[in-house]
Design goal:
Bound molecules: adenosine-5'-triphosphate
Protein name: ABC transporter ATP-binding protein
Strand content: 25-35%
Helix content: 10-25%
Keywords: ATP-binding, Nucleotide-binding, Transport
Number of strands: 20
Pfam families: ABC_tran (PF00005)
Structural class: alpha+beta
GO molecular function: ABC-type transporter activity; ATP binding; ATP hydrolysis activity
CATH superfamily of the largest domain: P-loop containing nucleotide triphosphate hydrolases
CATH architecture of the largest domain: 3-Layer(aba) Sandwich
Oligomer: single chain
Length: 380
Protein backbone atom coordinates (compact mmCIF):
# COMPACT_ATOMS: atom_id res chain seq x y z
CA UNK A 1 0.00 0.00 0.00
CA UNK A 2 1.38 3.44 -0.99
CA UNK A 3 1.70 5.97 1.76
CA UNK A 4 3.57 9.22 2.33
CA UNK A 5 4.69 10.11 5.85
CA UNK A 6 6.18 13.53 6.49
CA UNK A 7 7.68 13.65 9.98
CA UNK A 8 8.75 16.90 11.69
CA UNK A 9 10.45 18.52 8.68
CA UNK A 10 11.88 22.05 8.96
CA UNK A 11 13.70 24.34 6.54
CA UNK A 12 15.46 27.62 7.20
CA UNK A 13 16.80 30.04 4.55
CA UNK A 14 19.10 32.55 6.27
CA UNK A 15 16.95 34.19 8.94
CA UNK A 16 13.73 32.98 7.39
CA UNK A 17 12.19 29.86 8.91
CA UNK A 18 10.21 28.76 5.85
CA UNK A 19 8.93 25.43 7.26
CA UNK A 20 8.73 24.56 10.94
CA UNK A 21 8.23 21.07 12.31
CA UNK A 22 5.67 19.96 9.73
CA UNK A 23 4.14 16.48 9.95
CA UNK A 24 1.32 14.81 8.05
CA UNK A 25 0.53 11.56 6.27
CA UNK A 26 -1.18 10.92 2.96
CA UNK A 27 -2.74 7.53 2.36
CA UNK A 28 -3.10 5.58 -0.83
CA UNK A 29 -5.96 6.94 -2.90
CA UNK A 30 -6.08 10.15 -0.86
CA UNK A 31 -5.82 13.70 -2.19
CA UNK A 32 -4.37 15.81 0.60
CA UNK A 33 -4.61 19.57 0.09
CA UNK A 34 -2.05 21.94 1.60
CA UNK A 35 -3.98 25.17 1.99
CA UNK A 36 -2.42 28.45 3.05
CA UNK A 37 -1.69 32.04 2.08
CA UNK A 38 1.25 33.15 -0.02
CA UNK A 39 4.68 32.62 1.61
CA UNK A 40 3.35 30.10 4.12
CA UNK A 41 5.85 27.40 3.06
CA UNK A 42 3.69 25.20 0.82
CA UNK A 43 6.06 25.00 -2.15
CA UNK A 44 9.07 24.48 0.11
CA UNK A 45 7.35 21.42 1.62
CA UNK A 46 6.66 20.05 -1.85
CA UNK A 47 10.25 20.72 -2.96
CA UNK A 48 11.54 18.76 0.03
CA UNK A 49 9.22 15.86 -0.78
CA UNK A 50 10.46 15.74 -4.39
CA UNK A 51 14.10 16.07 -3.38
CA UNK A 52 14.79 19.53 -4.83
CA UNK A 53 15.54 20.76 -1.29
CA UNK A 54 16.93 18.97 1.74
CA UNK A 55 15.10 19.44 5.05
CA UNK A 56 17.30 20.69 7.94
CA UNK A 57 15.49 18.25 10.23
CA UNK A 58 12.91 15.53 9.95
CA UNK A 59 12.17 12.48 7.85
CA UNK A 60 10.16 11.72 4.72
CA UNK A 61 8.96 8.16 4.17
CA UNK A 62 7.40 6.93 0.94
CA UNK A 63 5.99 3.42 1.04
CA UNK A 64 7.85 2.99 4.35
CA UNK A 65 11.20 3.75 2.71
CA UNK A 66 13.18 6.71 4.07
CA UNK A 67 13.66 8.98 1.02
CA UNK A 68 14.81 12.09 2.95
CA UNK A 69 18.28 12.19 1.38
CA UNK A 70 17.56 10.31 -1.85
CA UNK A 71 18.36 12.08 -5.17
CA UNK A 72 15.25 13.58 -6.74
CA UNK A 73 15.72 11.48 -9.92
CA UNK A 74 15.67 8.35 -7.75
CA UNK A 75 12.26 9.21 -6.26
CA UNK A 76 9.35 7.97 -8.30
CA UNK A 77 7.28 11.14 -7.87
CA UNK A 78 5.30 13.04 -10.53
CA UNK A 79 4.90 16.82 -10.13
CA UNK A 80 2.94 19.62 -11.79
CA UNK A 81 4.54 22.94 -10.81
CA UNK A 82 3.05 26.44 -10.93
CA UNK A 83 4.99 27.28 -14.09
CA UNK A 84 4.01 23.92 -15.66
CA UNK A 85 7.63 22.89 -16.47
CA UNK A 86 6.74 22.44 -20.15
CA UNK A 87 9.45 22.61 -22.81
CA UNK A 88 8.29 25.33 -25.26
CA UNK A 89 10.49 24.10 -28.11
CA UNK A 90 8.86 20.66 -28.16
CA UNK A 91 5.51 19.41 -29.44
CA UNK A 92 2.63 18.41 -27.17
CA UNK A 93 3.38 14.75 -28.00
CA UNK A 94 7.07 15.01 -27.07
CA UNK A 95 6.30 16.90 -23.86
CA UNK A 96 3.87 14.22 -22.72
CA UNK A 97 6.15 11.36 -23.85
CA UNK A 98 9.31 12.80 -22.28
CA UNK A 99 9.05 11.08 -18.88
CA UNK A 100 8.58 7.62 -20.40
CA UNK A 101 11.37 8.11 -22.94
CA UNK A 102 13.65 9.19 -20.12
CA UNK A 103 12.90 5.88 -18.45
CA UNK A 104 13.51 4.05 -21.76
CA UNK A 105 10.00 2.70 -22.24
CA UNK A 106 9.52 0.83 -25.59
CA UNK A 107 8.33 3.08 -28.43
CA UNK A 108 5.01 1.22 -28.85
CA UNK A 109 4.15 1.60 -25.20
CA UNK A 110 5.00 5.32 -25.28
CA UNK A 111 2.74 5.73 -28.32
CA UNK A 112 -0.11 3.83 -26.68
CA UNK A 113 0.08 5.76 -23.43
CA UNK A 114 0.40 9.19 -25.06
CA UNK A 115 -2.69 8.46 -27.19
CA UNK A 116 -4.65 7.29 -24.15
CA UNK A 117 -3.74 10.33 -22.05
CA UNK A 118 -4.39 12.73 -24.97
CA UNK A 119 -7.81 11.17 -25.44
CA UNK A 120 -8.70 11.62 -21.76
CA UNK A 121 -7.54 15.24 -21.73
CA UNK A 122 -9.02 16.22 -25.10
CA UNK A 123 -5.57 16.84 -26.59
CA UNK A 124 -5.65 14.36 -29.51
CA UNK A 125 -6.00 17.07 -32.15
CA UNK A 126 -3.17 19.05 -30.59
CA UNK A 127 -0.45 16.40 -30.30
CA UNK A 128 1.61 17.72 -33.21
CA UNK A 129 1.35 21.36 -32.10
CA UNK A 130 4.32 23.25 -30.64
CA UNK A 131 3.49 24.03 -27.02
CA UNK A 132 4.39 27.71 -27.46
CA UNK A 133 1.24 28.04 -29.59
CA UNK A 134 -1.15 26.77 -26.91
CA UNK A 135 -3.55 28.65 -24.64
CA UNK A 136 -3.06 28.67 -20.85
CA UNK A 137 -5.74 26.01 -20.39
CA UNK A 138 -4.19 23.75 -23.03
CA UNK A 139 -0.73 24.14 -21.53
CA UNK A 140 -2.19 23.17 -18.20
CA UNK A 141 -3.63 20.00 -19.68
CA UNK A 142 -0.26 19.12 -21.26
CA UNK A 143 1.32 19.51 -17.80
CA UNK A 144 -1.31 17.19 -16.34
CA UNK A 145 -0.75 14.76 -19.25
CA UNK A 146 2.96 14.65 -18.42
CA UNK A 147 2.09 13.59 -14.89
CA UNK A 148 -0.72 11.25 -15.84
CA UNK A 149 1.40 9.19 -18.21
CA UNK A 150 3.78 8.13 -15.46
CA UNK A 151 3.25 5.35 -12.95
CA UNK A 152 4.52 7.28 -9.97
CA UNK A 153 4.32 6.41 -6.27
CA UNK A 154 3.13 9.92 -5.44
CA UNK A 155 1.49 12.79 -7.39
CA UNK A 156 2.09 16.44 -6.51
CA UNK A 157 0.26 19.51 -7.84
CA UNK A 158 1.58 22.98 -6.94
CA UNK A 159 -1.17 25.58 -7.54
CA UNK A 160 -1.58 24.14 -11.02
CA UNK A 161 -4.67 26.10 -12.01
CA UNK A 162 -4.17 29.50 -10.44
CA UNK A 163 -3.68 31.20 -13.83
CA UNK A 164 -6.80 29.79 -15.48
CA UNK A 165 -10.28 31.20 -16.08
CA UNK A 166 -13.12 29.79 -13.90
CA UNK A 167 -14.49 27.37 -16.54
CA UNK A 168 -11.09 25.92 -17.37
CA UNK A 169 -10.33 25.70 -13.66
CA UNK A 170 -13.43 23.58 -13.05
CA UNK A 171 -12.56 21.28 -15.91
CA UNK A 172 -8.91 20.95 -14.86
CA UNK A 173 -9.93 20.16 -11.27
CA UNK A 174 -12.02 17.28 -12.59
CA UNK A 175 -9.06 16.06 -14.64
CA UNK A 176 -6.79 16.11 -11.61
CA UNK A 177 -9.35 14.19 -9.57
CA UNK A 178 -9.56 11.71 -12.45
CA UNK A 179 -5.76 11.20 -12.34
CA UNK A 180 -6.11 10.53 -8.65
CA UNK A 181 -8.92 8.01 -9.09
CA UNK A 182 -7.15 6.15 -11.87
CA UNK A 183 -3.74 6.03 -10.22
CA UNK A 184 -4.95 5.15 -6.70
CA UNK A 185 -1.80 6.69 -5.20
CA UNK A 186 -1.29 9.40 -2.61
CA UNK A 187 -1.55 12.95 -4.00
CA UNK A 188 -0.83 16.42 -2.62
CA UNK A 189 -2.48 19.50 -4.07
CA UNK A 190 -1.39 23.01 -3.09
CA UNK A 191 -3.69 26.01 -3.18
CA UNK A 192 -4.44 29.35 -1.51
CA UNK A 193 -8.13 29.05 -2.34
CA UNK A 194 -10.32 27.34 0.25
CA UNK A 195 -13.19 26.77 -2.19
CA UNK A 196 -10.79 24.84 -4.40
CA UNK A 197 -9.47 22.92 -1.40
CA UNK A 198 -12.99 21.99 -0.27
CA UNK A 199 -14.02 20.83 -3.72
CA UNK A 200 -11.07 18.47 -4.10
CA UNK A 201 -9.68 17.30 -0.79
CA UNK A 202 -10.18 14.17 1.23
CA UNK A 203 -8.29 15.98 3.98
CA UNK A 204 -6.77 19.44 4.22
CA UNK A 205 -3.68 20.67 6.06
CA UNK A 206 -4.02 24.40 6.79
CA UNK A 207 -0.62 26.08 6.92
CA UNK A 208 0.50 29.53 8.04
CA UNK A 209 4.02 30.90 8.58
CA UNK A 210 5.60 27.52 7.92
CA UNK A 211 3.51 25.66 10.50
CA UNK A 212 0.62 23.30 10.03
CA UNK A 213 -2.26 24.83 11.97
CA UNK A 214 -4.70 21.95 11.61
CA UNK A 215 -5.30 18.80 9.57
CA UNK A 216 -8.85 17.62 9.00
CA UNK A 217 -11.67 16.93 6.60
CA UNK A 218 -13.37 20.03 5.16
CA UNK A 219 -16.29 19.52 7.60
CA UNK A 220 -14.01 19.19 10.61
CA UNK A 221 -12.17 22.38 9.73
CA UNK A 222 -15.36 24.39 9.29
CA UNK A 223 -17.14 22.98 12.35
CA UNK A 224 -14.17 22.93 14.72
CA UNK A 225 -11.35 25.22 13.56
CA UNK A 226 -8.31 24.75 15.80
CA UNK A 227 -7.67 28.46 16.12
CA UNK A 228 -8.62 31.95 15.00
CA UNK A 229 -6.34 31.81 11.94
CA UNK A 230 -8.08 28.68 10.57
CA UNK A 231 -11.56 30.07 11.33
CA UNK A 232 -10.74 33.33 9.55
CA UNK A 233 -8.99 31.76 6.61
CA UNK A 234 -11.96 29.49 5.84
CA UNK A 235 -14.67 32.09 6.28
CA UNK A 236 -16.12 34.09 3.39
CA UNK A 237 -17.67 36.66 3.88
CA UNK A 238 -15.13 37.38 6.62
CA UNK A 239 -15.52 36.06 10.16
CA UNK A 240 -16.84 38.65 12.64
CA UNK A 241 -14.49 38.82 15.60
CA UNK A 242 -15.44 40.75 18.71
CA UNK A 243 -13.89 40.97 22.13
CA UNK A 244 -15.89 39.96 25.15
CA UNK A 245 -15.37 39.71 28.88
CA UNK A 246 -16.14 36.87 31.23
CA UNK A 247 -18.05 37.83 34.37
CA UNK A 248 -18.77 35.71 37.40
CA UNK A 249 -22.04 36.48 39.14
CA UNK A 250 -22.60 34.13 42.08
CA UNK A 251 -21.65 30.74 40.67
CA UNK A 252 -22.61 31.56 37.13
CA UNK A 253 -20.36 32.76 34.32
CA UNK A 254 -21.63 35.36 31.87
CA UNK A 255 -20.32 36.73 28.62
CA UNK A 256 -20.53 40.47 28.12
CA UNK A 257 -19.74 42.48 25.03
CA UNK A 258 -21.06 45.93 24.25
CA UNK A 259 -23.85 44.34 22.19
CA UNK A 260 -24.29 40.78 23.47
CA UNK A 261 -24.85 39.31 26.89
CA UNK A 262 -25.67 35.74 27.88
CA UNK A 263 -24.83 33.14 30.47
CA UNK A 264 -22.57 30.19 29.79
CA UNK A 265 -23.98 26.72 30.47
CA UNK A 266 -22.39 24.72 33.32
CA UNK A 267 -20.16 22.70 30.96
CA UNK A 268 -18.07 25.81 30.47
CA UNK A 269 -17.41 26.42 34.18
CA UNK A 270 -14.07 24.52 34.56
CA UNK A 271 -12.61 26.20 31.49
CA UNK A 272 -13.85 29.67 32.39
CA UNK A 273 -12.62 29.38 35.96
CA UNK A 274 -9.15 28.50 34.58
CA UNK A 275 -9.26 31.62 32.40
CA UNK A 276 -10.50 33.59 35.39
CA UNK A 277 -13.36 36.08 35.87
CA UNK A 278 -12.86 39.39 34.06
CA UNK A 279 -10.63 37.75 31.40
CA UNK A 280 -10.97 38.71 27.82
CA UNK A 281 -12.27 36.22 25.28
CA UNK A 282 -12.49 36.50 21.49
CA UNK A 283 -15.77 35.63 19.82
CA UNK A 284 -15.85 34.41 16.20
CA UNK A 285 -19.27 34.79 14.58
CA UNK A 286 -19.67 33.46 11.05
CA UNK A 287 -21.89 35.71 8.91
CA UNK A 288 -24.17 32.80 8.05
CA UNK A 289 -25.16 32.06 11.67
CA UNK A 290 -26.83 35.47 12.03
CA UNK A 291 -30.55 34.97 11.53
CA UNK A 292 -32.79 37.86 10.48
CA UNK A 293 -36.17 38.47 12.15
CA UNK A 294 -38.20 36.92 9.34
CA UNK A 295 -36.34 33.58 9.65
CA UNK A 296 -36.09 33.25 13.44
CA UNK A 297 -38.92 30.70 13.47
CA UNK A 298 -36.69 28.35 11.40
CA UNK A 299 -34.33 28.04 14.38
CA UNK A 300 -36.80 25.68 16.14
CA UNK A 301 -35.90 24.96 19.78
CA UNK A 302 -32.25 26.07 19.39
CA UNK A 303 -30.97 28.53 22.00
CA UNK A 304 -30.59 32.09 20.83
CA UNK A 305 -29.52 35.57 21.78
CA UNK A 306 -31.51 38.36 20.19
CA UNK A 307 -30.36 41.88 19.47
CA UNK A 308 -31.34 44.92 17.46
CA UNK A 309 -29.06 46.21 14.75
CA UNK A 310 -29.12 48.84 12.04
CA UNK A 311 -28.47 48.02 8.40
CA UNK A 312 -25.44 50.00 7.22
CA UNK A 313 -25.23 48.49 3.78
CA UNK A 314 -26.47 45.41 1.94
CA UNK A 315 -25.68 43.81 -1.37
CA UNK A 316 -26.59 40.65 -3.31
CA UNK A 317 -24.01 37.87 -3.54
CA UNK A 318 -24.80 34.84 -5.71
CA UNK A 319 -28.44 34.45 -4.64
CA UNK A 320 -27.69 35.42 -1.05
CA UNK A 321 -27.43 38.79 0.58
CA UNK A 322 -24.56 40.18 2.58
CA UNK A 323 -25.58 42.80 5.10
CA UNK A 324 -23.38 45.01 7.22
CA UNK A 325 -25.11 45.63 10.55
CA UNK A 326 -24.29 47.99 13.40
CA UNK A 327 -25.29 46.56 16.77
CA UNK A 328 -23.67 49.25 18.93
CA UNK A 329 -21.36 52.19 18.58
CA UNK A 330 -18.34 49.88 18.47
CA UNK A 331 -19.72 46.64 17.03
CA UNK A 332 -20.52 45.89 13.42
CA UNK A 333 -21.41 42.47 12.08
CA UNK A 334 -21.26 41.17 8.56
CA UNK A 335 -24.27 38.90 8.08
CA UNK A 336 -25.19 36.63 5.22
CA UNK A 337 -28.90 36.00 4.73
CA UNK A 338 -30.23 33.23 2.54
CA UNK A 339 -33.56 34.89 1.85
CA UNK A 340 -33.58 37.75 -0.56
CA UNK A 341 -35.94 39.96 1.45
CA UNK A 342 -35.80 43.61 0.56
CA UNK A 343 -33.62 45.44 3.03
CA UNK A 344 -33.10 49.18 3.17
CA UNK A 345 -30.03 50.97 4.44
CA UNK A 346 -30.81 52.51 7.83
CA UNK A 347 -33.50 49.93 8.65
CA UNK A 348 -33.54 48.49 12.20
CA UNK A 349 -33.62 44.68 12.31
CA UNK A 350 -33.93 42.14 15.08
CA UNK A 351 -31.35 39.40 14.63
CA UNK A 352 -30.77 36.13 16.47
CA UNK A 353 -27.59 34.15 17.02
CA UNK A 354 -27.39 30.61 18.36
CA UNK A 355 -24.54 30.75 20.93
CA UNK A 356 -23.79 27.07 20.22
CA UNK A 357 -22.52 28.23 16.86
CA UNK A 358 -20.25 30.98 18.16
CA UNK A 359 -16.54 30.21 18.33
CA UNK A 360 -14.70 31.32 21.46
CA UNK A 361 -10.94 31.81 21.20
CA UNK A 362 -8.26 32.23 23.85
CA UNK A 363 -7.25 35.93 24.00
CA UNK A 364 -3.50 35.18 23.76
CA UNK A 365 -2.98 31.77 22.10
CA UNK A 366 -6.06 32.28 19.86
CA UNK A 367 -6.87 28.57 20.20
CA UNK A 368 -10.49 27.42 20.05
CA UNK A 369 -11.93 27.06 23.56
CA UNK A 370 -15.38 25.58 22.90
CA UNK A 371 -15.51 22.46 25.15
CA UNK A 372 -17.29 20.37 22.53
CA UNK A 373 -18.16 21.30 19.01
CA UNK A 374 -21.92 21.22 19.40
CA UNK A 375 -24.92 21.66 21.61
CA UNK A 376 -23.44 22.84 24.87
CA UNK A 377 -25.79 25.78 25.04
CA UNK A 378 -28.81 23.75 24.07
CA UNK A 379 -28.35 21.58 27.18
CA UNK A 380 -28.67 24.73 29.24
N1 LIG B 1 15.47 29.20 -2.07
C1 LIG B 1 15.02 30.10 -1.19
N2 LIG B 1 15.86 31.01 -0.64
C2 LIG B 1 15.43 31.90 0.28
N3 LIG B 1 14.15 31.97 0.70
C3 LIG B 1 13.28 31.11 0.18
C4 LIG B 1 13.66 30.13 -0.78
N4 LIG B 1 12.56 29.38 -1.09
C5 LIG B 1 11.54 29.89 -0.36
N5 LIG B 1 11.96 30.90 0.40
C6 LIG B 1 11.14 31.70 1.35
O1 LIG B 1 10.39 30.81 2.15
C7 LIG B 1 9.09 31.30 2.39
C8 LIG B 1 8.07 30.27 1.97
O2 LIG B 1 8.07 30.19 0.55
P1 LIG B 1 7.16 29.17 -0.26
O3 LIG B 1 7.42 29.37 -1.71
O4 LIG B 1 7.37 27.79 0.27
O5 LIG B 1 5.70 29.69 0.12
P2 LIG B 1 4.30 29.32 -0.57
O6 LIG B 1 3.34 29.12 0.55
O7 LIG B 1 4.47 28.20 -1.54
O8 LIG B 1 3.98 30.68 -1.33
P3 LIG B 1 3.13 30.89 -2.71
O9 LIG B 1 1.74 30.39 -2.44
O10 LIG B 1 3.19 32.38 -2.89
O11 LIG B 1 3.84 30.12 -3.78
C9 LIG B 1 8.97 32.61 1.62
O12 LIG B 1 9.16 33.69 2.49
C10 LIG B 1 10.09 32.52 0.60
O13 LIG B 1 10.57 33.80 0.27
Amino acid sequence: MSKLEVQNISKQYGNKLAVKDVSFTVDEDELFVLLGPSDSGKTTILRMICGFEQPDNGTILLNEEDITTKESAQRNIAVVFQDYGINPTMSVYDNIAQGLRFRRFPKEEVEMRVQMVAEMLGLREKLARQTRNLSGGELQRVAIGRVMIKDADLYLFDEPISQLDPTTRRRTRQEILMVQRIKKKPGIYITQDHYEAFSMANRIGVISQGRIQQVGTPDELVQTPANLFVARFLCDPPLNTIEGYIQLVGTRYYLRTDSLSFSFPPQWTPLLSRLGPQSKIILGIRPNIIVPEWSINTMGPAPRVMLRAQVIHSGPMMGRRTVLLRASQHTEFMAEFKDNFSIKDGQILTIAINPDQIFFFHPHTEELLNPTAQSVFSLH
